[in-house]
Amino acid sequence: MMMHTTNSALMELGVYSFGDTQRNADGTLRSTTEAIANLHEAIVLADTVGLEYFGVGEHHTLDMPASSPGAQIAAAAGATTDIRLGSSVTVLSTDDPVRVFQQFATADAISGGRVEITAGRGSSVESYPLFGYELSDYDQLYAEKLDLLMTVNSSERTTWFGTVRAGIDDRVIVPRPVKGSLPIWLGTGGSAPSSVRAGRLGLPVSYGIIGGIPSRFGRLADLYRATAQQSGHRGPDIKVSAGTFGLVAPSKQEAVERFYPGWRNLQLLMTERRHWPNPDRARYEEQTHAPFAYYVGDPDDVAGRVVDLYRHLGHMRHFFQMDIGGLPHEHFLEAITLLGTEVRPRVQKLLRSK
Amino acid sequence: MELGAYSFGDTQLNPDGSLRSTAEAVKNLFDAIVHADSTGLDYFAVGEHHTLEMPASSPGAMIAAAAGATKQIRLGSGVSVISTDDPVRIFQQFATADAVSGGRVEITAGRGSSVESYPLFGYNLRDYEQLFEEKLELLMRVNEHEQVTWSGTTRAALKDLTVVPRPVNGSLPLWVGTGGSAPSSVRAGRLGLPISYGILGGAPHRFSALSDLYRRTAQQAGHTGPNIKVSVAALGLVAPTKDEALERFYPGWRNMHTQMGKLRGWPAPDDNAYLAQAHAPGAYYVGDPDDVAQRIVQLHGHMGHVRHFLQMDIGGLPQEHFLESLELLATEVKPRVERLLAIEG
To answer: The whole model's pTM is what?
Structure first.
């Protein structure tokens, strides 16, 4: 397998969030305003402690109110100096790629060229009725809008015609990104067709691994790389990142205890919304240990497992969703600090020793 | 009286007159807002255009960026072209910025002074009236309610759907922006919304007929209280002396006029008209601190406006002149305006 390197680190580490609303003692939700301000504070801290990446995902619920990754990323662009900022994911299917591009290019200009877009279908479908789209157009919407986003990103003047949006006849789309174009990733929960699509288009791919055994995604990453190669795409754009659940605490036991209530809340919500199975503490605990998917642990544990996954996936970035189901904000901030100051040096050391 | 600025993100020019990068323009605009905040201005607004000369295409993203980097200044759009955008998305962007800013964000909804967004976003100019009417109604609805039910002809219906995040103070201040039409004044009065007049030429005090109409309509419609108020946006630049202000503002004004001449059939730029507009009772607030302060206070005598904000960076005005003008507006014009108003008071 190829070694993947970046300028500053062998492996970039980061965080992603949907803007998790805090809870009152009785379990009721606190304000969405506070959730957005908390998220902003978390991104600023991640920059301060030296993390390489922060992604903001799009949802439209009282418990996950980060509905505008573009605005949230723009706010962060003005308040940070080094960290790369992106979406995880931009639900491209139900938005206008021109507007999305304009928001992210604006943020990019302010950040001095640190902004990326990860385009995906999203893990939930609440944006379809909100913005007047039909789930029956799921595939067509995504394929065409990704094509338009890539077109808008690649040149100052755009000509594009399709079925899911008005055509654009040789029009300027501004502002333009600092480095000519924005990095566009394809975000997927781990389907083979999405891996093939990313490879065929020559886009970097970001896997959301929210359960099961992450090392099994090695086969998808191989499929992605093989497809890219067959399509004649090579070079630095052919790369893989992984987004997973995770939380770092001073000890494994604390991490497991801190992450559980929020995980349980989220699981209960998803049981209601998407008919997931009822939360099960034993299953939860199993998921927090190798070879499973929750990177919940102390710095040694999390660093070791990130590097283990690297051997299967060859990913160059690993980022964690920590704040779920009302995780207390101070635990979120502490986990970010530990990820930047404790996990990060361990990961670099382990990778260098290999 | 609040003082401030608005901008469309003006792209700098090279010595040969060619345009520099739009990324630089956006960064310059961001720097200007941060500077306006640190010098003590009350308000900054970002307008929406889609051209290489005016690349601030996403007021929501720009205001959000400013929200994260400022402490006190109120931030808004001047204007959000709601006719060709989705009010739900606009609200979400501004509410996100509002949360980050701690409640300093406003929206000014308008039709915009240009029409380049219609083809870009697939709208038809035939629907001009209907689009604005319906989208303003939806924006008001989304702003007031967490659960939204709405139906119309210009956008898919909403059936009891959640729109988040919610603003810090329950709702965002929502203004109607107009270039000065009587129907828009009546509309704002009827809806009980504050109104913002963009006064780009002529004799500003004549707008008092419109602001009177607005206030009368509001009263007849049963709207009273602090939301019934008027703001004024105008062209202007402050420099240490009147001569410097006139010299600094002129090249950019000329560029913009030449450009607009091509786009909209405006007459060729006329130096005498420029000078006339830059002196009372003209509409360009281009001058030294005493001059600009006096003319703002004079207009206040006619309009009773609560906020006066200036578009300074047009046609490639050098960024350093923009920054100096913002600082003079805050540190020199503002105290003079307050003193004059206190005397009048």
So the answer is: 0.97
